[in-house]
Structure formats: structure tokens, C-alpha cells
Amino acid sequence: MASNLRQFLDNVKNGECDKVTKWLNKGLDPNFQWKDMGETPLTLAIKLAKPRDMIMTLVSGGAHLDYRAADTMTPLHKAAVAGNYEAIKVKRQIAASYFEQLEQSKTQSCPLLPPNILTSQQTPTAPRVTGGHL
């Protein structure tokens, strides 16, 4: 099993979306920390020069956007530290899409959201972005 995870992480690091998709289709859960380096597949994807396709592949395969590495940093934290603005933009687009779907369905499936969030014209991250936090 460990060699499978190592191969999967190598595929992520090399940007091989087709191979990563095959692993995910076989049922591999992308939410894990590799014990030797403490990284997750998404935190490794953030390090790619062009991370968009790999991030989208992992997220569509079930990767949680806020799954933390051993150093307690999320993929978004790592993207910010590395200055990888493309990765930050992709993360924001995925989050915006999620909240857009919530608004369209008019169901509050996330109890942590404030009650008025579904009627707001902005995403929950918009005030943080305009405030300079992202």
C-alpha cells in the first residue's frame, strides 16, 4: 500500500493528471498525509508551476480543500507562502462555485454558515479578499 501512495504522490508531483485520475477512479482516497514529508496530495499540487489541472483533478476525486499537512498548513496557506497566485485563484473559484450552488439550491447544508449568507451577493471570502487577507 505504501508503494502505491508513493507512486500516487510522484504522479501528483510530476503533474500527471491522467495517472492521478486512474488512481482516484480505483478508489484511492486523496486525503492523507505522507508520513515521511508530512505533505498531502493537494499541498504537493500547489507546488506545481501550473497547478490548476492537478488541483481540479484531486478535488473532483474527493480531496478536501482544507485538509492540512503535518505542519498544520492548508493548501491555501502553502500557496500563499509560495506566492503561487494561480493556485490561490483556483481555490477561490472552487469555493465560490460551492457557495453559488448553495445559493441556487436555497438549502443551508452547512450549519456553520451565517443565515444571511445564501441571500448575500458576495461569497464568504469576498470581504477577506477586499480586506487584503488573500
TrEMBL record:
Keyword list, A-Z: ANK repeat
Stretch list, region Disordered: 113-134
Pfam family, one: Ank_2
Keyword rRNA-binding: no
GO terms for MF: ionotropic glutamate receptor binding; synaptic receptor adaptor activity
Cellular component GO terms, alphabetical: dendritic spine; postsynaptic density; postsynaptic membrane
Phylogenetic placement of the source organism: Eukaryota, Metazoa, Spiralia, Lophotrochozoa, Platyhelminthes
Name of the molecule in the record: Uncharacterized protein
Ranges for the ANK repeats: 37-70
PROSITE patterns in the record: ANK_REPEAT
